[in-house]
Amino acid sequence: MSERLQLSLLLSHVVSRQAVILEAAFREQGIPFTAEQYRLMYLVCGQPAVHQEYYARKLGRDRSSLTRMIQQLEKSGMLMRIPSDHDRRSLQVQPSTKGLEEFQKAQKVADETMRQLWEGIAAEEREILNSLLVRLRGNS
């Protein structure tokens, strides 16, 4: 197996494992998000009232799969889609009050989970890894 393929598989495994650990912690705390829904809520809560296309690009998802995820979160009362002031055909996404409350709970659990995941890895090592991953993303 080539070194590049091995690194790609390792990155994929780390991301998948992180999602499994995060979702288990969410279930344990009664938080109603999957790892992917949490990432969307993180974006929406950080920059609300943006068009769905923005979130699709940020998450690397196609529009139809993102729309399904937004519909699920809207159905559960976490998100709202509102018509744009500039284009009534376009919808903007924003968190509901319930969504903000659940996100804040989820964020505490995610922070603790990430702290445990990164335990034993020095800040300098994290900076190097971050730099390398940013460069990899730029190549794609």
Report on this model:
This protein has helices spanning 3-29, 35-46, 52-59, 63-75, 97-117, 123-139, and strands spanning 50-51, 79-83, 91-95. The protein has 6 helices and 3 strands, in the order H-H-E-H-H-E-E-H-H. With 140 residues, the protein is mainly alpha-helical.
Please give the number of β-strands.
3
Please outline the major beta sheet.
3 strands, antiparallel
**Gyration radius over CA:** 17 Å
Question: What's the tally of helices?
Answer: 6
Structural class: mainly alpha
- Helix fraction, binned, reads over 70%
How much of the residues is beta strand, in percent? 5-15%
Strand order in the largest sheet: 1-3-2
What is the arithmetic mean of pLDDT?
92
Note the overall shape. globular
Low-confidence stretches: none
**Order of SSEs, N→C?**
HHEHHEEHH
Between the first and last Cα atoms, what is the distance in angstroms? 21 Å
Short description:
Helices cover 70% and strands 9% of the residues.
Describe the protein's topology:
Blueprint: H1 3-29, H2 35-46, E1 50-51, H3 52-59, H4 63-75, E2 79-83, E3 91-95, H5 97-117, H6 123-139
Antiparallel strand pairs: 1-3, 2-3
